[in-house]
Specification:
By secondary structure, this protein is mainly β.
Length: about 230
């Protein structure tokens, strides 16, 4: 499989497949394709995995695109202005933890499943940060990033506190916790959320400069109302 990232504002990844090679994405993720691509929609991995994807913010059904001849092309587009990041999981035997909404598409040799944080309190109070996906296998995985991508390599014991919506992905060896913002003044007047994601090294972390959910929320007051 060969690929190239096209576009800068709302980019997409265009993949060129040989006969028998396959890519999968959420339903609705495909932008265009050439002749020689066969599409199948199913609950990839079975009912349990599909329900897990629903909780992690992804669609229950996944669409697979398989080449029936060499050189067939299929492209997958991001949904908001930002970037598409390729990750070669062949060099990451422990896989990659992915924030919900960051998965764009992957080769069929890549497996994604729901992954819970070790501490239940992180899910109980951490909102969108509770349920993640873990991607494992050999092959290319493509992540959708809102705004610009920021990559950091945390040293052992190094701590990075991030707004949950700005986390894209991190290696499984990075510890992940939810921390409450301290101080009533900060909570009620600070303009931020009640919780921060605490990432503890060592390991690679991928962040995004924009949290699209927060951006959309800021637009609501300017939307016309009925009446």
């Amino acid at each position: 499989m060969n690929y190239k990232i096209i576009g800068q504002t709302v980019p997409l990844v265009e993949t060129k497949l040989n006969a028998g090679e396959s890519m999968y994405t959420q339903s609705g993720g495909m932008a265009y394709q050439t002749e020689g691509i066969e599409m199948k929609t199913n609950a990839r991995g079975g009912v349990i995995k599909s329900i897990g994807r629903m909780f992690s913010g992804e669609s229950i059904f996944m669409a697979s695109y398989t080449a029936t001849k060499d050189g067939a092309t299929v492209a997958f587009a991001s949904t908001v202005p930002g970037n598409v990041i390729p990750v070669d999981l062949s060099s990451m035997p422990e896989g990659l933890m992915i924030q919900k909404g960051s998965f764009l598409c992957a080769e069929s040799t890549v497996d994604t499943k729901v992954a819970f944080t070790k501490k239940f309190s992180a899910g109980l109070f951490g909102g969108e940060g509770f349920i993640l996906q873990k991607a494992t296998g050999k092959g290319n995985l493509f992540l959708e990033v809102d705004g610009d991508a920021i990559e950091k390599e945390l040293a052992p014991g190094e701590i990075l506190k991030v707004d949950t919506g700005n986390v894209v992905a991190f290696e499984p060896k990075v510890s992940y916790e939810i921390e409450t913002v301290k101080g009533l003044g900060n909570i009620f007047l600070g303009g931020e959320g009640l919780f921060l994601t605490k990432l503890i090294g060592p390991g690679r972390v991928i962040l995004q400069s924009q949290n699209f959910h927060d951006f959309a929320g800021r637009l609501i007051p300017y939307m016309p109302s009925k009446g």
